[in-house]
Amino acid sequence: MRAGHCWWRWHRGHADDVETITVIERGTGPAAEVCACLPCARRLAGQFPHGQLAKAAVAAMEKRAAVREAHRA
């Protein structure tokens, strides 16, 4: 779990738990990672096909969310 910035157009703000959803290759420069929080990652599921990295990120965030909910109960 890491806090960070969610870059998706409907959020664009701080989030307590973000994961790398995709990596953008930029030719000669370093690659850029694009992160999303769980609510945004869930919304992306219907937007375009996810790669393996995004699927693993969503699964990891879902698991952490379930653990947090169990501790709250």
Describe the structure.
This protein has 73 residues and is of the alpha+beta class. Helix content is 38%, strand content 26%. The model has no long low-confidence stretch (mean pLDDT 81).
What secondary-structure arrangement, pairings included, does this model have?
Elements: E1 4-6, E2 13-15, E3 18-24, E4 32-37, H1 38-44, H2 52-72
pLDDT below 50 for ≥5 consecutive residues: which ranges? Answer: none
Number of domains: 1
- Beta fraction: 25-35%
Instruction: Identify the strand order in the major beta sheet.
Output: 1-2
| Cα shape | elongated
| Number of E strands | 4
User: What is the mean pLDDT?
Assistant: 81
The largest β sheet comes out as:
2 strands, antiparallel
Task: Name some characteristics of this structure.
single chain; alpha+beta; two-stranded antiparallel sheet; two-stranded antiparallel ribbon; 2 helices; elongated; 73 residues
Short description:
The chain has 73 residues and is of the alpha+beta class. It is built from 2 helices and 4 strands.
